[in-house]
Specification:
With about 400 residues, the protein is α+β, with helices and mostly antiparallel strands. Among the domains are: about 240-335, no CATH class; about 345-380, no CATH class. The chain has 15 helices and six strands. The protein has helices at about 1-10, 30-40, 40-50, 70-90, 100-120, 150-155, 210-235, 240-245, 255-260, 265-275, 295-300, 315-320, 325-335, 345-355, 365-380, and strands at about 125, 130-135, 145, 165-175, 185-195, 205. The longest helix has 26 residues, at about 210-235. Keywords: Metal-binding, Nucleus, Zinc, Zinc-finger. It is found in: Nucleus.
């Protein structure tokens, strides 16, 4: 199949193969379908050639051959799943984004609601039309190898003008295999015609069958149910709301916009959490006699206007610069905003620690391992630098 892609469609597809779904890999369904759409022309040709194979056991099942509607449904699935890939990549990095988790859940809910409305009827705008492929002559019991024509013949045949919508003709030769595995003289040539849709044309709306429509509708319904389940669990934990409120780009603006009826109750839970865990923190910035008269940090912070175009990379630095103004809220913000939004960074740290504890160092105390990982991460981010002793010279041991 790889040879078909190199010669017949595009050199950029060289070496690409189909991907399989993986239950333990994020976005594996999206990646599988996306790769299939990239190789759709090759897959169609491969399946049509396989159906004509004289040996029944070598043929692809007719039920597994994708129809034009199947390709359209797959393209729609890609559009539905695209935000999930985007947000997964957004959260799996090292930048602290815990405060963005709940707002993102609402963005995903909006996306699925829009998709549910879009697929309320069978008529949809067609984002993709499968190429029309015809194949002449049966395929013999032999190896199929690419036999590209020279430039002159290709020019006479119309060339590989996939983007212009003209018909493209390809010639494939079938060869007998010798004992050395090398193909010998050609036995026959099959002509394959592929006609692509013009990308500049606005395609007519595509009417899905009831099966295709019901599949997408039930998938969206299940996705919304699963999203609501985890969103409700997050909303039941005050730390998600607290982290969002402590984000200077959100504050309570998001709550006032999306959940105006719940602002008071969420702020009450936020204050209770603060009083329970951070109100008694000793603060050196206030004189001992004046600590009881310390200003209400929460009210002062909530009166600030949320900052637009806030850079996430500066989140912790923003709070470091206001440690004196909000000493107790600073402690709370550093605890919550430094939480990883996903387990990806935690798994990376765990893997690095595993390399630290080698077979010769398996008696390291957990405090030592923790200190080593902290130093490693601080050095990587530039928070600290390794100072060389005076007079030190690098030497090869």
């Amino acid at each position: 199949m790889a040879e078909l892609g190199v010669w017949f469609v595009d050199d950029t597809l060289k070496g690409l193969m189909v991907k399989a779904d993986n239950d333990t890999r994020w976005n594996s369904v999206y990646l599988m379908v996306h790769r299939a759409l990239r190789l759709r022309d090759i897959i169609d040709v491969f399946c049509k050639l396989s159906l004509l194979d004289p040996k029944e056991e070598k043929r692809v099942s007719a039920e597994d051959v994708l129809s034009c509607e199947d390709w359209v449904v797959l393209a729609e699935i890609i559009e539905i799943l695209q935000p999930y890939l985007t947000y997964t990549k957004h959260f799996e990095g090292r930048t602290p984004r815990f405060a963005e988790v709940l707002p993102t859940m609402y963005l995903l809910k909006d996306h699925l609601s829009e998709m549910r409305q879009r697929y309320s009827s069978n008529l949809i705008p067609a984002p993709y039309r499968a190429p029309r492929i015809t194949l002449e002559e049966p395929v013999l019991d032999c190896i199929i190898v690419a036999a590209p024509t020279d430039g002159r013949e290709r020019e006479q045949q119309g060339g590989l003008q996939q983007d212009t919508g003209v018909s493209t003709w390809g010639r494939y030769s079938t060869m007998e295999s010798t004992t050395s595995g090398e193909p010998s003289s050609p036995l026959y040539q099959a002509e394959i015609s592929v006609q692509f849709e013009d990308k500049d044309l606005d395609p007519e709306p595509f009417e899905l069958s009831d099966d295709g429509l019901h599949f997408i509708q039930h998938s969206i319904k299940y996705a919304m149910s699963k999203l609501d389940k985890y969103r409700n669990l997050m909303e039941g934990s005050v730390v998600y709301w607290a982290a969002m409120i402590l984000h200077p780009g959100y504050g309570i603006g998001f709550l006032q916009l999306r959940l105006p009826n719940q602002v008071d109750s969420i702020l009450r839970d936020f204050r209770d959490y603060f009083d329970r865990h951070y109100a008694q923190v000793i603060v050196a910035n206030f004189p001992k006699k004046a600590r009881k008269e310390a200003p209400d940090e929460i009210n002062l912070y909530l009166q600030m206007v949320p900052e637009e175009d806030f850079k996430e990379e500066q989140l912790l630095q923003w709070w470091l610069g206001r440690k004196t103004q909000f000493p107790r809220l600073f402690n709370m913000a550093m605890d919550l905003l430094s939480i990883s939004a996903m387990s990806s960074e935690n798994e990376r740290v765990f893997s690095a620690a595993k390399l630290t504890i080698s077979s010769q160092r398996n008696a390291l105390h957990w405090v030592t391992v923790e200190a080593l990982q902290c130093l490693r991460n601080w050095a990587r981010t530039g928070a600290i630098s390794w100072a060389k002793p005076r007079g030190h010279q690098d030497t090869m041991l």
